[in-house]
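User: Quick one: structure for sequence A, then sequence B.

Assistant: Sequence A:
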Amino acid sequence: KVNCAVLNAGDGRHEHPTQALLDALTIRRVKKRISGLTVAICGDIAHSRVARSNLHLLAKMGNHIRLIGPPTLMPPGLESLGAEVFVVMMLRLQKERMDGGFIPSEREYYHRFGLDADKLGAAKGDAIVMHPGPMNRGVEIDGELADDINRSVIQDQVEMGVAVRMAAMDLLVRTRKDRPREVMA
């Protein structure tokens, strides 16, 4: 109900489309392609708008998506796809959106689902590590692994975030000038 362009940069528990765009750009720059990959999205799937947006975008780009997390943090109706892990995308525990005891403890969560060097060792040697931030070091990801310049592309994601969001805003401004009465969603 507004007469202006709208850019969804994240809305509560629903979607975070600009994060999915920057994640796709980061993957493409590092892997040299954006389709035919198997992507593991790990962690708090139920409360993550990043997971939902990446599921939509990466699946449409022809990738296999695998969801990994405790059953209490998996939303009903989503299916895991694929068998091999080439990209590991870690998600933050969304404690501010949790109403109850979804996990026994952060220590138990890290032990079973947190990404560390041993767990990453099960992935292909060229797997990259992603995280949309902010991250809880020692909860969903080992701090040393997050900073590992050979495996982690988290810093690249941050850089791509600025570029993708600037491009989206530029596109909206240009679209607004061309069609002043149209409302963009």
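Sequence B:
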Amino acid sequence: LGARDAGGNSVGLNIVIPHEQHTNPYTNNNYTFEYFFARKTMLNFAAEAYVFFPGGFGTFDELFGILTLVQTKKIPPVPIVLFGKDFWNPLKEYIQKCMLEQHHTISDENMDLFVITDSVENTIRIIQDAPVSAWWKMLD
């Protein structure tokens, strides 16, 4: 809604699944995919920021896919915002305690790859303050 009301382009990348599927009415353009891998490829390439809301296995799949691509520098660093502290803070605690401190499968700087917030204003500021993605610079 915010992108549309601001005159921005909001693209919906939908997936055909038996349930939990609907087209976001606030998008200007929509593309529907039959396969998750094709949808994820488009998500990985096209976005200049990611805002994740509470969701299920698919949301976590997409989140960890993006985190891995940024962590391994396969895509340029982009804002990754997790909206909803009550939902996302327990995940952050797990990542901190299990992955970072106990098993050392990630490093300290990986904890800075994402931001958790409940603030729409903070989310907008993070996106506005981000540099233009290197993907889009290559197309100029």
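The chain has a mean pLDDT of 88. Helices lie at 2-5, 36-46, 57-71, 85-102, 120-129, 134-139.

User: Thanks, that's what I needed.
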